[in-house]
Amino acid sequence: TAKESGRGKFCVFSPEMNQRVFEYLWLDTNLRKALEKDQLIIHYQPKVTRSGEVRSLEALVRWQSPERGLIPPLDFISYAEESGLIVPLGRWVMLDVMQQVAKWREKSINLRVAVNVSARQLADQTIFSDLKQALRDLNFEYCPIDVELTESCLIENEELALTVIQQFSALGAQVHLDDFGTGYSSLSQLARFPLDAIKLDQSFVRDVHKQSVSQSLVRAIVAVAQALNLQVIAEGVENTKEDAFLTKNGVNERQGYLFAKPMPAAAFEQWYQRYLARTAR
Ligand code: C2E
Ligand code: MG
Ligand code: MG
Ligand code: MG
Known about the structure:
Helices cover 48% and strands 20% of the residues. This is Cyclic di-GMP phosphodiesterase.
């Protein structure tokens, strides 16, 4: 074999690495084009308050590839972050969401939308000027956008994170800490940032009614959040038992397949009309 004869050392790429390099190159040519050709699409997922109202949605990007079909964000966001393409991609998301919110406003559907923002996007100020410009262009007197930052955003550069949070807040956007509990930030670090809410990661939510460790963690996190005046949003709520535990223990808003999957704007509108009709009774 190659190994026995010493030829193995010339084998630089394993098949697995080859696959990854191939994937990187595929994304490198195609994601840029996707942005130019308008192949990205936003799906919206509602969040439901304790009283059963939907006041806010989360915007989740997907890629409609002619070659591969609908591609989930986990398959291209990290590439976009590494390559820097996340900056124009993030701008597209923000502006597309703003336009959609303006269309909804025309129909008297007044909802806030939370947009995911990567650490890499925070380093340049255009995100604020773009948002301000869009608010002006679309005649918004208030900001209907909230932002979801991950723990890595806060940790990589605390000073920058602090300024960024203040800048978003000054514009009228709420700032939410996404996937809370999965990163390296601690409960004590929460106090340092003027956040509006934390989003409890799905890993705490999954089967929480059966897992005593998750139950303790959820209770502890909610207690700290309440002490710091932060709202708690649970993501990935899939069944009524999880939901019952979370609501009973002080979670303010819930989001998950139990209520609705992320869906295109038109499908969301239909879902919302049905939801309003059902909850009005
Ligand atoms: P995230 O921000 O934590 O979003 C929540 C993810 O959980 C979404 O996955 C959503 O579809 C999924 N989810 C919601 N409810 C349930 C549920 O009940 N069960 C399960 N199993 N999953 C649920 P998605 O849409 O695949 O997005 C994955 C991640 O991609 C997001 O996680 C976010 O980090 C990132 N992402 C999505 N859109 C954007 C974007 O526009 N910009 C940036 N920078 N990142 C984005
Ligand atoms: Mg999110
Ligand atoms: Mg999340
Ligand atoms: Mg998550």
